[in-house]
Amino acid sequence: MHRAVRPVFQRGRNMAASTAEPQILVQYLVLRKDLSQAPLAWPAGALIAQACHAATAALHIHRDHPHTGAYLAELERMRKVVLEAPDESTLKQLAETLQQKNIDHLLWLEQPENIATCLALRPYPKEEVSQYLKKFRLFK
Q1: Is residue 61 part of a domain?
Q2: Does residue 9 belong to any structural domain of this protein?
Q3: Which partner from 2, 3, 32, 66 sits 20 to 30 angstroms from 134, CA to CA?
């Protein structure tokens, strides 16, 4: 497996060395905080899995976007920020706002219950999306 990953790391370093400093891209995730609290009390592993599902799906769906390609080309520079939404309603409201503003994202729905658990944006420059996320704090 390391042989497959190593050329990607090398390619990313060569690209950075041959051009101006690349734009720093961030993938934002917004995870429901209430899932970790009573009465739901999901275990930490289940919450982490929801964030992983959402992040992977958003990267896959937006794999042809130049920002996603640049983000994945430099694996050692990947940045993710995990924020918390208080509940499902707030998460769905954020999804609606992002859709209205044409911000690429994915709302992960856990099946078979069809529960919205996590929202993931594709990689973006922080300054392009921070205004939509500033009311959310880091997930704790």
Answers
A1: yes
A2: no
A3: 66
In a domain, 69, yes or no: yes
Q: How many domains does the chain have?
A: 1
Are the C-beta atoms of residues 106 and 91 closer than 8 Å to each other? no
DSSP code for 19: S
- Residue 119 burial (C-beta neighbours within 10 Å; 0-12, 13-18, 19+): buried
Q: What is the pLDDT along the chain (140 residues), one digit of tens a residue?
A: 333 333 333 333 334 444 556 679 999 999 999 999 999 999 999 999 999 999 999 999 999 999 999 999 999 989 999 999 999 999 999 999 999 999 999 999 999 999 999 999 999 999 999 999 999 999 99
CA Rg value for the chain: 16
Task: Put residue 114 in one of left, alpha, beta given phi > 0 → left and psi -120 to 50 → alpha.
Answer: left
What b/e string do you get for 26-40 counting C-beta neighbours within 10 Å, with b at 16 or more? bbbbbbbbbbbeeee
